[in-house]
Amino acid sequence: MKNEKENKKELHVFSLASFLNDLGSDMIYPIWPLFVTVFLGADVVVLGLIDGIGDALVSISSAFSGFLSDKFRRRKIFVWTGYISSGVARLGYAFSPIWTYLIPFKALDRAGKIRGAPRDAMIAELSSKENRGANFGFLRAMDNFGAIVGITLSILLLKYLGFRNLILLASIPSFFSAFIIYHFIKEKKFEVQKRAFSINLFDKNFRLFVFVNGLFALGAFSYSFFLLYAKDIGFSIYTVPIFYLIFTVSSTIFSYPFGKMADRIGRKKVLMISYLSFALVCGSLILTRSFMGVMLIFCIYGLYKSAIDVSQKTLASEICPLDYRATSLGSFQFITGLIAFPASFIAGLLWKLLGMNYPLYFSLFLSLISLLLINFVKEQKIC
């Protein structure tokens, strides 16, 4: 009983830290594509390049930290240092005079995702198979609640503070997140692994899972393009962040229910819902031009995001080797994130060379293929 109470307390600490960090990051996210393309004068290919580099570094840092976390049996240090990295990077954004300066700070910001695999491993380890999906859903809901507050502040303050001062303000919450993790999370003791790490530890089922999600990730380009799409069909730079707010509210509402649903009906079925939702977003955005229509699309986009976040991590944590759980989660995030680099870059090229609908056609096709292939992944409990 005491252990269960302690686990619940630590889940709440992780969730509070995530809330604060996402509050800061989502003050920036809705204005990021506008900051890069309108304020600093870059084009969509540059935006895709910067976002793609960031996504690739998320994957590299996740794999690196996941492996080291398992090797040295330490989790916490990767979490709080990751939050500090993100805070420092946002300070760099605020003082960047031209878009080229954004690249190293984007790298530092996304390298802060070294916290991802160790934190997810800690969440998985303090959970049982009966509540693991719900716990990941609760964490994601707190992420999104912080995002709602951050986006709301962004919408309210942009006119008064401007881009630079708003981004400067957004750097502060990450430092509080680092403080909370450092002082209130206890490092757990682990047994030393009885077997050396090898790629052969991952069976065919896990490899297929990674392949299918990697294929889907190739079409899951950055959210920046959805916001630019809204701008290019006629909405103002002050209206565009509202769509991002709608997306985040939707994601928040559905995160915990999808986590519970994943516990009840299975992780794979919820993952399939996410693929189908993304396909629906891409197909609908090709045809829709009205304000209400775009609002509905961003609602579905939020549904997709909440479903994929809870189902991917939960399923990955259960079909992997227990003694290399952080490494497995990191490897999974490494591959899918690395593929996200060409995804955003390809989207930028297709947009520039063929038109803004072609990234949507490309993503729609890959989403449907992934939906078919995921049926061959088994939800067996290896760990």
TrEMBL record:
| The entry's keywords | Membrane, Transmembrane, Transmembrane helix
UniProt keyword Nucleotide-binding present: no
Locate the transmembrane regions by residue number. Answer: 141-160, 166-185, 206-229, 235-258, 270-303, 331-351, 358-377
Q: Where is the Major facilitator superfamily (MFS) profile domain?
A: 10-382
Q: Which InterPro entries match?
A: MFS (IPR011701), MFS_dom (IPR020846), MFS_trans_sf (IPR036259)
Alphabetized SUPFAM superfamilies for the sequence? MFS general substrate transporter
Q: What is this protein called?
A: Multidrug resistance protein MdtH
